[in-house]
Specification:
The chain is α+β, with helices and mostly antiparallel strands and 489 residues long. The chain has 16 helices and 13 strands. The strands form 4 sheets. Strands 1, 3, 7, 8, 9, 10 and 11 form a 7-stranded antiparallel β-sheet that branches. The protein binds adenosine monophosphate and magnesium ion.
Length: 489
Amino acid sequence: MTQNIINAGWNLNNSYARLPDPFFEKVQPDPVSNPEFAVFNKALAESLGLNSDKLNSQEGAEIFSGNTLPEGAMPIAQAYAGHQFGHFTMLGDGRAVLLGEQLTVSGKRYDIQLKGSGRTPFSRGGDGRATLGPMLREHIISEAMYALGIPTNRSLAVVTTGEPVFRENELPGAILTRTASSHLRIGTFEYAAQWGGKEGLRTIADYAIKRHYPEVEAQEDRYVKLFEKVVENQAALIARWQLVGFIHGVMNTDNMTISGETIDYGPCAFMNEYDPATVFSSIDVQGRYAYQNQPPIGQWNLARFGEALLPLFAKEQDKAVELAQSVHSKFEELYHKHWLDGMREKLGFLEGAAQDEPLIEDLLGIMKKHQADFTNTFRALTMDKPEITPMKDTPDFTNWYKQWQARLERQKVSKNEAFAKMKSVNPSVIPRNHLVEEALEAAVRDRDYSVMERLLNVLAEPYAYSSEQEEFTKLPPACDRPYRTFCGT
Ligand code: AMP
Ligand code: MG
């Protein structure tokens, strides 16, 4: 063990695998024939206490493909259920394996999970595999979210397997290693409530509290407090998504974490022109997970969490429901506060004023009317260059701009301070769909990862406003077909 720490730095603990049986199944990743790195996240490896030089090697490729297990691993597939597009169903890790939890020197605990590592008892009809394009897409977007400062799981590596995966076409197989403060999700609790009995439910709730919210552990009403914390963190998270135009695309309850981190980068994408009804996912025909629906769907999902926890809230059903409702109903106000605070910062309002919200809504309305790009509009304002927005000569924008300037002048802080704040919250670069597609095409077609590497470098500093970033802020040529994303298959 000591030698191993010196070598690769693995320091795995397996608290989840020590939970009672029903919460997981022991599994082994299926070996693959020829693992090779597509990308290795050195900075993340280092921050986990891993030896990045040692792991950026064939030895590392064997580990991140599941061919060999890192010291101390106890591979399992987690059991969970979930509401998918509104319908309850049993799920579980059908193509993922949790190797263990890496403990860092600072005492943090991170799940190390392989995604695409073969079939598990939860695979149903699936092959347990993943393909290169979607795994690199998850790598790019989750790392971009991290750089934006939005809570998220991260991607440590993507390796190609050397084996084909059969979808509509034959595609190169790949495995992504993701790290997260845990993979506990609302669906974990729905599973426990349905099949674990009250004891199972209590076990997983105690586990979640210990892992994520130890500050409520000693409180008598800790389960209500757990619910409250998750409501607070999800309200904050979804507001952050809205503020950068991120559309998750598949906000099923199994894809919503207890930690408040973004997980499950499947059909997600960033909005270009501002339209609250934007949907990218090809399977979301009803627009259930459209941009504007993310906050209410988040709240709907949290209602499923509250329902699952009910038996722990109080002995009497009426009392439990009352407690659940009083916590759940706070979501709207919390969300709205985070959103409004965030929008104020985006516009440089460092001291809130009563008329801010109408001014914000006006701008959004004008952006929608003129199909203005979400990110670039705030970028233009941040750079104090209104002339670079296509809305520049329109009377409604000109009028709004005057009001905005007047509002900035009315506040005590200087305009410089206001612009400095704006620069720290309005990204100049986001993983634009056409850029991501370009990077994936080069990677999948030619195994040329250089386009992706360049993009990753730019996305790592979204608030830099550097001249090298300029070309990454350009919009794609107008296209008559709307952009479509597909589930991470
Ligand atoms: P997701 O849409 O990624 O949240 O996945 C929903 C469920 O389908 C989860 O239980 C996954 O583990 C499972 N799943 C997705 N793709 C596959 C696959 N290729 N093989 C087996 N299970 C899968
Ligand atoms: Mg999922």
